[in-house]
Design goal:
By secondary structure, the protein is mostly helical. 81% of the residues lie in helices and 0% in strands.
């Protein structure tokens, strides 16, 4: 539970995670520049699902009940905005 130094082999993994996160953020920013936020938002929200799946695949860990309630609120709000935007365009 205390501080543990970073092992030599972990540096490359940390660099890979940082680079892929940076590229992903740049691509999402570009998508928001080119398309309406209501179109891009569902892809951004899917990060919650991907995070849970990857977390379970690697560490067999599931989010707590509080985290699931928070994620549900965020997704519901996104769907509400999406429905409102689509209704306004019709």
């Amino acid at each position: 539970r205390g501080w543990a130094g970073i092992r030599d082999g972990s540096w490359t993994r940390m660099l890979a995670v940082g680079l892929t996160g940076w590229v992903t953020r740049c691509r999402m920013t570009e998508a928001l520049r080119l398309a309406a936020a209501s179109v891009v938002a569902p892809f951004e929200e899917s990060a919650l699902i991907w995070g849970v799946c990857i977390d379970f695949a690697f560490w067999q860990a599931l989010p707590s009940g509080r985290a699931l309630v928070g994620a549900t609120i965020v997704v519901a709000a996104g769907l509400l905005v999406l429905a409102r935007e689509r209704g306004a365009q019709a």
